[in-house]
Design brief:
single chain, 289 residues, alpha+beta, Alpha-Beta Plaits, 2 domains, 4-stranded antiparallel beta sheet, 4-stranded mixed beta sheet, 17% strand
C-alpha cells in the first residue's frame, strides 16, 4: 500500500498536435517530461492560467516550490528550482499540464512532482466550484428576466450550500487512493451523493488534517492521530440533517477502497506464490537429471 499522501495519478501520453495554451515561466533543461490530466473543461483554461500567467504561477508553480523548500529544508535541495508548466487540451484526453524534471533536484523530483500534481488538482477543484456558482447565478438571472417580462416560469426555489467536514484515521492510506486516475473514483462518489440526496454541484476536497485550520469536523471512528485525513463535502440543496446520510455514504466509500486494495494485495501474493512454485518445479527438474 502506498505511504505518501500526495494526489496519485498515472501520467498520460499525448500527440504532438494538441491545442496548446502556454504560460511563460523559467525554462529548464531537457529532462524527464510529465503529463498530468487536470479535471477542467477547455473553456476554463484561461481561469487556470490567469492574466499573464499569474494564477498558474502563484497557485501552482511558486506554491509548489515553496512547499518543497519548507517541508524538505533539512534535505539536500541544491541550486535554483526552475519549473515551466504548459497547459494543453486534447479532444480525446481533455485538459492536461506538462512539465519536465528540474535537473538540480535529482532524486527529489519524485517528491516535487507529487506536490505539483496536488497543487494542480486543488486549483482545478476551486475553478470548477467557481464555475458552478456562476452557472447557478446565470440561471437565476434568466428566470428573473422571464418573470419581469410576464413569461410563466416555474417558481424559483433558492438552494443553500451545505458544507460537512469529516475527520478519519486511515492509517497509511494515501489520498490518491480516494481520488483515482484523473479523479474517476472521487467523481463517481460525487455522483452517488447527488443521486441519493437530489442535490446539485457536489464538491469534495480531501486533505491532511491541520490543527491550524479553522474548521469543525465530525470524527469518524474511535481514534484520532496526527495523520488523519479530512473529507470536506459540500453541495447545493438538501438540509443540515443530510450530514448523517453523507457520513454513512462516506464510511461505505472508504470501506470499498480498503476492500479493493486488499484484493489487489491478495492477487500480488498469489502471483508471488505461483512464481515460487514454478521455481521449485524447475529446480526439481534439474535435480532429476
Amino acid at each position: 500500500m502506498a505511504t505518501n499522501t500526495m494526489i496519485d495519478a498515472t501520467d498520460i501520453t499525448v500527440a504532438d498536435t494538441d491545442t496548446t495554451v502556454t504560460t511563460d515561466t523559467t525554462i529548464t533543461t531537457d529532462t524527464t517530461p510529465h503529463n498530468f490530466k487536470v479535471g477542467i473543461d477547455k473553456s476554463l483554461i484561461p481561469l487556470l492560467i490567469g492574466s499573464g500567467g499569474k494564477n498558474l504561477y502563484h497557485k501552482v508553480i511558486n506554491a509548489s516550490i515553496e512547499e518543497l523548500q519548507k517541508d524538505y529544508e533539512h534535505q539536500a535541495v541544491k541550486g535554483d528550482i526552475k519549473l515551466r508548466i504548459t497547459i494543453k487540451n486534447n479532444d480525446a484526453i481533455g485538459t492536461y499540464a506538462s512539465w519536465k524534471d528540474t535537473e538540480s533536484l535529482g532524486p527529489m523530483n519524485v517528491v516535487f512532482n507529487e506536490i505539483i500534481k496536488k497543487k494542480l488538482t486543488d486549483v482545478a477543484v476551486s475553478i470548477n466550484d467557481f464555475d458552478s456558482k456562476k452557472k447557478i447565478e446565470l440561471k437565476v438571472k434568466k428566470i428573473e428576466l422571464k418573470v419581469k417580462k410576464g413569461v410563466k416560469s416555474e417558481p424559483l426555489v433558492k438552494k443553500y450550500r451545505q458544507n460537512f467536514n469529516y475527520r478519519m484515521d486511515l492509517g497509511k492510506c494515501s489520498i490518491g487512493q480516494f481520488i483515482g486516475n484523473g479523479g474517476d473514483i472521487i467523481n463517481s462518489f460525487k455522483q452517488d451523493i447527488a443521486d441519493k440526496l437530489k442535490v446539485d454541484k457536489v464538491f469534495i476536497k480531501i486533505d491532511e488534517y491541520d490543527d491550524d485550520k479553522d474548521y469543525q469536523c465530525r470524527v469518524i471512528g474511535n481514534t484520532i492521530s496526527d495523520i488523519d485525513i479530512v473529507f470536506e463535502i459540500g453541495f447545493y440543496g438538501g438540509d443540515r440533517s443530510d450530514i448523517h446520510i453523507v457520513q454513512k455514504m462516506l464510511i461505505n466509500f472508504v470501506n470499498g477502497i480498503y476492500e479493493d486494495d486488499n484484493e489487489d494485495d491478495n492477487e500480488d501474493d498469489n502471483e508471488d506464490d505461483n512464481e515460487d512454485d514454478n521455481e521449485d518445479d524447475d529446480n526439481d527438474s534439474v535435480n532429476s537429471d
